[in-house]
Design goal:
By secondary structure, the protein is mainly alpha-helical. The protein has one domain (11-101). Helix content is 68%, strand content 0%. It has helices spanning 14-27, 29-53, 72-101. The longest helix has 30 residues, at 72-101. The model has no long low-confidence stretch (mean pLDDT 76).
Length: 102
C-alpha cells in the first residue's frame, strides 16, 4: 500500500476547518435563507394541519383506557410526522452542503 496521505503538508487544519464550518451559516445568511424559505413556507402550514389532525392520536394525549384500542394512527402518528419532515430537511441540507463545497 502506498502511504500517500501521511505527509504533514497534506493534513487538514482541524481548528481552522471547525471555525470555518461554524462561521459559514452566519457569513452566508442570505444563501441559507434562500435554500430554506421555500420549504419552510410549504411545510409549516402542512405540519400544523397534520399535528392538529393527529392530536387525539398522540400517545401522551390519550388516557390509559384508550390505549388498548390498537389504532394504527395511535401507533404510527410520530412516524408519519417524521417522514413528512424528512424530505424538506434533507433538501435544505443538500442545498446548503452543495453551497459549502462550492
Amino acid at each position: 500500500m502506498s502511504d500517500w496521505g501521511a505527509t504533514s503538508a497534506s493534513k487538514l487544519p482541524v481548528w481552522r476547518a471547525v471555525r470555518a464550518a461554524y462561521a459559514a451559516p452566519y457569513q452566508e445568511r442570505s444563501t441559507l435563507a434562500r435554500a430554506a424559505s421555500t420549504w419552510l413556507f410549504i411545510t409549516t402550514p402542512l405540519m400544523f394541519v397534520l399535528n392538529w389532525l393527529l392530536w387525539s392520536y398522540q400517545p401522551t394525549v390519550r388516557t390509559a383506557a384508550d390505549s388498548s384500542l390498537g389504532n394504527i394512527l395511535y401507533d404510527t402518528s410520530g412516524v408519519w410526522i417524521f417522514a413528512l419532515e424528512l424530505l424538506p430537511v434533507s433538501s435544505i441540507a443538500v442545498a446548503w452542503h452543495r453551497r459549502l463545497l462550492l
